[in-house]
Specification:
This protein is mostly helical and 78 residues long. The protein has one domain. The chain is built from two helices and two strands, in the order E-H-E-H. Strand 1, helix 1 and strand 2 form a beta-alpha-beta unit.
């Protein structure tokens, strides 16, 4: 089973705490100031950025289907 992920739309503090309580991974940027890149954490930061980018790319077809349902099948008028 694939892990459940939340889109970046749900990035508020309240939503993030709900996602954490329900073991749903948030695929957006972390809150607060960006961490300072040092030689020790450079690879980790690079890997986290690539992971966020990959998760965002996985969401594109899903968001496209939402748009197709809303505008292609006129479900936004219900």
């Amino acid at each position: 089973m694939r892990p459940t992920r939340a889109d970046t739309l749900y990035g508020s503090r309240d939503n993030r705490s709900f996602l954490e309580r329900n073991n749903i991974r948030f695929s957006g940027k972390p809150l607060g100031r960006p961490a300072k890149i040092t030689p020790e954490n450079k690879e980790v930061m690079k890997r986290l950025k690539a992971q966020r980018r990959q998760e965002y790319r996985e969401r594109i077809p899903i968001e496209g289907k939402f748009g197709q349902g809303k505008y292609g099948y006129r479900l936004n008028h219900i």
